[in-house]
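Exam revision sheet. Question 4 asks you to relate a sequence to its structure. Input first:
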Amino acid sequence: MAVTIAFALLALGALFVVLGFVAAISRRRQSSRDERTMRTGTLTAATVSNKGYDFFRESPRILTTVTFTFVDLQGIQRWVQKTMMIEQGDPVVDGQETRLWYDAANPGDVGGIVVELARERRMRR
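Answer key, structure tokens:
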């Protein structure tokens, strides 16, 4: 019985190590993609259209999804949502402006859109 439990815990630990590596690789790939988009993509202004929260409760930090609106080169208004860590001392407000980069050839590619404010306030770096 003890050997079975030990083996199960070892397998579970190995699974968590593998998942940790996969998550780290995924974050690194997204960071590389963001940097490439910032170098080669189209820069435009974005506006916070939904800050994603009403008020701070018990914690001075909130993890929330913020909606940004921008206009692409064809004049089409688009939006993108990004998960952000917001501090009570430096809140995000509706109407706040920031810079946004996107691929003009594929402006609907949400994963390829980089929002400066969201990049500065992401949960993990």
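Marking note for examiners. Residues 2-40 form the longest helix (39 residues).
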